[in-house]
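Email to the structure team, subject: SURF1-like protein model.

Hi all, the expression group asked for a predicted structure before they design truncation constructs. Nothing fancy, just the tokens so they can compare against earlier work. One-line instruction: predict SURF1-like protein, return tokens.
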Amino acid sequence: MTEQRVGWSFLRSKRWIGYFALFVIFAIACVYLGNWQFDRRAQARAEIDRIDNNYDAAPVPLAEALPDTDDFNIDEHKWLTVTLTGSYDEGLVLARNRPGPSGVGADIIVPFRTSEGRVFFVDRGWMLASGTEIDRALAAAPAAPEGQVDVVVRLRASEPEVDGRSSAGRTVASINIAEIAEVSGVTDAYYSGAYGMLVSETPSAEHGVLPPKPERDEGPHLSYALQWYVFIIIAAIGVAYAARQEFKNLNAGSDEVLAMEQKERQRKKRRGPSDADVEDALLDA
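Reply from the structure team: attached below.
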């Protein structure tokens, strides 16, 4: 019998070139998704660093932290504790559709006029208010203390506007400082880059629910990233195994295939019978 010898030339066929192209596309997609998860992890770790560096730092005066009204650097300023002295103005605004401890509600935003004459917006906490209740919430929102007040806040960045959702009356869709200034009627100089989450005020007054300290959690992004690279390895092993099996089928009886089969038998012998082999033997018996 004439020995059929194809070798590995079948790998140059259109079918196998298609397999390789699919593998490359799959690998590129996995690398993209893995790197995306690495970026998500880097962002989470950067947020943890901001919390560690700023959240419990000693308070500094607002004018020292933000010399210019449009200043805000996320790494330097987010969660930084600052102090203000001045008085609350009229012009309370509710930032609607904010999640809270008991459902969807609104954050209470009040303009605060500092002793330097600039306006800074203070988030005095969350209150339950949604849908048709928003008008009643405006009337029921806790009033800020009158007269001179010393306030401690943690800095947060002004939020972007929400597409397709605009202000309605004295409510806004996001804590966008420029929009809140317009809704609350503030015309004087105001801090446009940041607002403050209330920590405490003296004299104190009733306020909304204040948020807890954010968790220091980087999430499962590292394991997800590694998982995508493992998928590439599994796919490569699958392609290599399929190519090896086709090689054996196309070159059955050749010296190279016989040598491959001999090595496999020796490997199995050294390894001992598998669970499947034992089970088959029991069934045969």
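The first strand starts at residue 60 and ends at 61. The CA atoms of residues 159 and 176 lie 5 Å apart. Ping us if the truncation boundaries need rechecking.
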